[in-house]
Design goal:
single chain, Serine Threonine Protein Phosphatase 5, Tetratricopeptide repeat
């Protein structure tokens, strides 16, 4: 009886399929163990499980997304050490791998945006928040975050200028040349920031934090005003927004208090 030349190949294929299936099962088991550790805030332990899951099944995107998120949770904003920076970069790298495999994955884009913001890489953060907006136009937080970044990018150079001119933070910039130079830089950011915050409030009418930041942007705009009257009007508008913000915060607090009492 002649040997069938295909028998060996079929057997090998079955073995490969079985091995691959076993690896995928092991990967899911590691993912589940990692999720359990993650929920218990055991991030180091969770990371090891997620890393193993990804090694066993590189296509298991949930494992990679959890791995990135676990790294992100270990990043400590404001701590400027090499180790902390490396943790942040690892998280971004893993989020980017998820995005490469699934360009429509909102979790990876929002994760990168948030990390860049925490790392004070504002231009990079804004780029990814805008990507998030493109993917999810109805997300108020993404719009709000761009507004916050725009305020940050306008506030810092204004304070540097006032310090150089030996002015107090509340003083008007009377030097026309300096004020115009600042306006050329800051005015587009102020307008974009206001637009984003207004869109955030359209999506979420009681967004008190957005109101607080639009107040701040009006104060930035006031410092670019050419006349004292214009500056005064802009500051009045800013005051109106902060009053709205505080009123909504108070109403929310009272509502929460009544819930806890009831």
């Amino acid at each position: 009886m002649k040997n069938n030349p295909w028998t060996g190949l079929v057997t090998l294929a079955l073995l490969l399929v079985t091995a691959t299936g076993c690896q995928k099962l092991k990967a899911r088991d590691e993912l589940n163990k990692g999720v359990a550790s993650y929920r218990d805030a055991k991030y180091e332990e969770a990371i090891e499980h997620f890393k193993t899951a990804v090694e066993l099944d590189p296509q298991l995107l949930n494992a990679r997304l959890y791995l990135a998120t676990a790294y992100a949770n270990q990043y400590i904003p404001g701590i400027e050490t090499d180790r902390n920076a490396q943790v942040g970069e690892r998280a971004i790298e893993e989020f980017q791998k998820v995005s490469a495999a699934d360009p429509n994955n909102i979790g990876s884009v929002s994760g990168i945006a948030g990390l860049y913001f925490q790392m004070k890489r504002m231009s990079d953060a804004k780029e990814y928040y805008k990507k998030w907006i493109q993917m999810e136009p109805t997300n108020a937080e993404a719009h709000y975050s761009v507004g916050v970044i725009d305020w940050t990018l306008t506030y810092q150079p204004r304070m540097v200028l006032k310090a150089r001119l030996k002015l107090k933070p509340e003083d008007q910039i009377k030097d026309q040349k300096e004020r115009q130079a600042l306006a050329e830089r800051n005015a587009p950011l102020i307008e974009e920031g206001m637009q984003m915050l207004n869109e955030a409030m359209e999506l979420q009418p009681d967004y008190d934090d957005a109101m607080a930041y639009i107040n701040l942007l009006y104060r930035e705009k006031a410092d670019l005003a050419d006349t004292p009257d214009e500056r005064t009007e802009l500051l009045k508008t800013a005051d109106t927004w902060i009053e709205k913000s505080l009123a909504i915060k108070k109403a929310k607090a009272e509502k929460e208090a009544s819930k806890s009492q009831g």
